Amino acid sequence: MTNENQSKKFFIYARKSTDSEDRQIRSIADQLAELRELAKKENIDIVDTLVEKQTAKKPGRPVFAEMLKRIEAGEAMGILAWHPDRLARNSVDGGQIIYLVDTGIIQELKFPTFWFDPTPQGKFMLSIAFGQSKYYIDNLSENIKRGHRQKLKNGLWPQMAPLGYLNNKETKQIYVDKDKAPLIKKAFEAYASGKYTLKETRKIINDLGLIGRRGSLLSVSNYQYLLQNPFYYGLIRYNGEYFEGKQEPIIAKKLFDEVQEVMKRKSKPQKVDEMKFFLYRGFFHCGECGFTITADRKIKPSGKQYVYYYCTKKNPNHICLQNVFTREEKISSQINETIQKVSLPDDWAGKMLNELENKKNEAVQSSRFFAQKFRNEIKVIDEKLEKLMNAYLENALNLAEYREAKNKLVNQKQLLKDKLTTFEQKSNNRFELVAKFINTVKQAEITALQENPEQGRDFLKKIGSNFRLTGQKLLLDFKNPFKILVKVEPEQSEGEAIVVQNPNSENWRRGWDSNPRDPFESQLSKLFH
Fold it and tell me: How far is 334 from 338, CA to CA, in rounded Å?
């Protein structure tokens, strides 16, 4: 054994990335085992073993760059690697290796699976190996892009499913994540209300349990990206181009558009209200001057606290004479009394729900004809998209013009699809709203008897609006259709104040039973309109 062989100093370099081109490459452990066996066989002195887990598609690998610097500094004369493609899959790194061999800085390269000798023939074969590696990765990349384009054309998302969806490894498609999708929808609804900033929306939805794929909480930027992703209403946005997706939408396009409008309006996060909490603060206006009713907390000598509500009297055009302070518990009591006035007996509610189901079945039949109009408009857009594609393929349009026109048509089509869905569900939704109303008024008396002020306040919002306080009396305007359940009479001859009178049960029963042919027809008709 010669002294020359004894003095050989090499670096071992092993690389394996998570890229698809490396999936069939041996593991790091296998590479190192073969390289150490070769080093022992060739009597090579290993200066250092360097391992890198990064793609070689493009220059910039830190471990690889550091190794070349150390070779240039004289620490080693050569490199042991499993194959030339471990060293380079791009022209820059490959050219650098060949240049260092040309200049004698790298004296030897050894591979268990490839022969190399620093001769013109050896360097030629090495350049071919590097070229083949680059061709392979370029060709693979093009095949992947082609596969992505085909998937997008078929309405399939080609990558990891967005949050709210899951990948099906067997069918290669995605489906709705039943646990996270409702929270995604709530995020859109919360932000669309305009009441919350992105930061506040994040806290609300994170508190409800929405987490990312790795079990971590979503950041504000995550929510901003999520709320701007058209994927959730049925489109796929990929490299600036829109495609019709086959995924099940989580939200409607209308809700998505509302979110975008709110996001445009919100240039700065709104300040958190640091004022003291009062149950009815901001809920009432003065029945005389129309200005806000404010609140204050008073502490009696006994130490007991009371909350009072009174007019701010800040209307510059009206001298308000309301000097009355109304205690919070008195307001709560009047709210409970008002809620009871819209309650509906269970037997009436049951008959109304049965009649509602009959009318729902009749409406389904008549809606089919009108739905066809939207289908015809969608067909026209499909024809335009086909012509647009042909114009692009015939070079009548450039890529930018094609994408702009296509994106516009795809969005128009999605809007029509939403309208079709809405129209087909309109009849059902209308009946569902009436059913919801009936069930709400069934719940009215229960809510009132529970004497929960917060629940009472929220229930009152459902049935009325324009809440006022005048002389310690609660006044409101009942919403449709709740107003048909109450009889409104003047409280007094002066002013505009009204008090709601509870309908007499016997009179109502006679009203329901006055038409033996269809005792609920007139009442249901009022609810529908």
Answer: 6
Classify residue 496 by its DSSP letter.
S
The length of the chain in residues reads 529
Answer whether 8's CB lies under 8 Å from 75's CB.
no
Query: Could you tell me if 238 and 152 are in contact, meaning their C-beta atoms sit under 8 angstroms apart?
Result: yes
139 φ, ψ (degrees, to nearest 5): -65, -40
Residue of 122, 12, 15 lying closest to 62 (CA atoms) = 15
Q: pTM, whole model, 2 decimals?
A: 0.38
Within 16-128, strands assigned E span: 45-52, 78-80, 108-110
Residues of the chain with pLDDT under 70: 1-7, 17-26, 131, 133-158, 267-276, 362-366, 368, 424-430, 487-529
pLDDT of 150: 66
Q: What is the pLDDT of residue 10?
A: 94
The parent domain of residue 85 ranges over 3-149
Q: Do 29 and 70 reside in the same domain of the chain?
A: yes
Pair 142, 174 in one domain = no
Which helix H or strand E contains 174, and what residues bound it?
strand 173-176
State the DSSP H helix or E strand holding residue 500, giving kind and residue range, or none if neither: strand 498-501
Q: Is residue 334 part of a domain?
A: no
Say yes or no: 219 and 243 in one domain: yes
